[in-house]
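Example 3.2
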Amino acid sequence: MRVRAIAVFLLGIMLVGMVSCAPIQQVLQVDPLRSVAIPSQATEPILIVGNAELSQQSRGGVGTRSDPYILSGLTKVTSGSCIYVRDTTAFFVIKDSDLECTGTLSPVISFHGVENGIIEGCYLRGGLSGAQFAFCVDCTIRESTCVASSNAISVTDSYNCTVRGCIAHTNIVGVLVADSNRSLIVGNSIYRNSQVGVLVEAASKETTVYQNSIGWNGWNGSGYLNAFDDGAETQFTNGIDSGNAWSDHIGSGHYNIPGTALSVDTIATTLTDMNRPNVNVPLDRVFDMESIGETLTWIATDEFPYSYLLSIDNIPSGAETWDGREITVSLDNLSAGAHVLVMSVTDAAGNTASDEVTVTAVSFMLGGLGTEWVLWGSVLTVVVLILVIAIIKKIQ
């Protein structure tokens, strides 16, 4: 009789343990999830004055045209300029870097009095400008992305500077040219900037703009303000066979540029985008809500990425800038239970695609010990339960 009682007592303990380890299905209030940026570190800015300091900061090269100094692989978030270069004449390249300025008064990268400087393959976010060339000669930014700045790229009081193959969107102004001569803007995607796409201010001469996709920028009350030209001798073609593609142009041929310069793109084409973004489908997830650092990632692609919106259980969060990179959100704030996450991405032309994922946050009694301990605890529970059942059968 005593053995039977002990067996029943052990069985009760095991059942309680199993119930305690079972998922809690109650759905509680869900806190908004946060976007997880590409890992960054808050560090002091890089300040370079003169060729000697440039050489000290370099990770390679000797400062010549054929073998420039190289600063690469930098990841920074600062309240001022991430990189400030002044009064250099040596050849150098800042490349493959992820930089963000959280303030509004400084450029992310600032060149002042620089000759022969290049920015290449960088992601620049925030600040007064993504990249600023001031009093510069023969400087270039190419194959880089600039978002969420006042002026994505600004060229002021400079000579023979180039903006090539860049993406500038969700800024106030896409590309600004002021008091500069012989600037070249070629092969860029300049779109969804809130005031104007390309702005050529007075006292600028011989700016050349061609082979760019310029669309959905600003709004002047009657149409998009994709470009504005107050400069002199501005050309919106290469003079041979290439103009620009404009979102508000119909057909082909002449496209008039607003501004006192009365410029015309005589080889203009229409910029259209009828394709929805592509969004991958992450698998439904079950995770231990006691763990830290759980994330969910969507990979979305489009020629003109613009914004994304995450909804949790039909409650939308605020729209965020989508820069074409992976979209990763933290699951740390999800409460216990099953939640439906819907990711909607929108491109510059307004085309939208979405993906739905079910994420279940499970709470275990041993969850604080980690999922490995929970697994072994569950296995042990099953083994002991089998032994208890065997004992009961034996004593009956």
